[in-house]
Every structure is written in C-alpha cells, then in structure tokens.
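hey m, so remember when u said the tokens were messed up on ur end? i reran from scratch. heres the input so u can diff it against urs
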Amino acid sequence: MGLIWSLIVGAIIGAIAGAITNRGAAMGWIANIVAGLIGAWIGQGLLGTWGPSLAGTALIPSIIGAIILVLIVSLVVGRTSKK
C-alpha cells in the first residue's frame, strides 16, 4: 500500500510543479509521477525533510525539487529540439 501512496503523492507533486512552471500541460500522468518522485528525492536531498509531509514525503522541499527538475528538463529538451 505504501507504493501506491508514493505514486499518488508523486503524481500530485509533479502536477503542482508542472502547473507552477506552466509546463504541466505537455506532461502526461506518467511524466508527472516520475517528475514528482525524482523531484522529491532531489528536493529532500538538497533541502531536508522540513514542513508538512504526506506518505513519508516532505511536501515543500519535494515541490521545490520537482520544479527544479521540470525546469532543467524543459531547458534540455528545448535546446535539443531547436537543433
């Protein structure tokens, strides 16, 4: 049951990051989950586990990490598609 909650929280975090960066419309639900999970790992690694948490995931650092991830990926994809 923990895996399901992690996927749900990852999807929510990825969707929030996509909405904040205005790049969420192009991302599907699988990309939202991946961005949320990797962003949570990055955010908690850089900023710690402070703030409210859900399913063992600190929400604020996770959202910040997912925003960083979405921006970096969109810059890389944007540069490679222009060539």
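this time it looks ok to me. The two ends are 44 Å apart (CA to CA). if urs says something different then somethings off w ur setup not the seq
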